[in-house]
Amino acid sequence: MEMSYYLDAMGCSNHLDVRECHSPAEDNNYADFVNLDSTRRAAHVGDVPFGAQSGDVYSYLIPDICQSTRPVLEVRTTVNA
């Protein structure tokens, strides 16, 4: 198959620049889905809307984000060597 087939299927109007691909609106409805009452009841999140705690979550993850993975990689490379 030609590359143009895939680019057309992805909604790319410019085949030389894939950054200009436009996805259908229904592909970008994650926030709407997780804010549905049925989804919120299934996830047991109560009255907290999606994205409301993102600042708190980010601040709690900073130590993990900034932590080096070098020790883990060294162990894995020496075990597999």
Write up what this structure looks like:
By secondary structure, the chain is mainly alpha-helical. 52% of the residues lie in helices and 0% in strands. The protein has one domain (3-80). The radius of gyration is 21 Å and the shape is flat. The protein starts with a helix and ends with a helix.
Biggest sheet record: none
Tell me the fraction of residues in β-strands, as a range: under 5%
Helix content: 40-55%
Order of helices and strands: HHHHH
Number of strands: 0
Return Rg in Å. Answer: 21 Å
Features:
mainly alpha, 81 residues
Short description:
The chain has helices spanning 3-9, 30-34, 37-43, 54-65, 70-80. The chain is mainly α and 81 residues long.
Layout: helices, strands, pairs:
Layout: H1 3-9, H2 30-34, H3 37-43, H4 54-65, H5 70-80
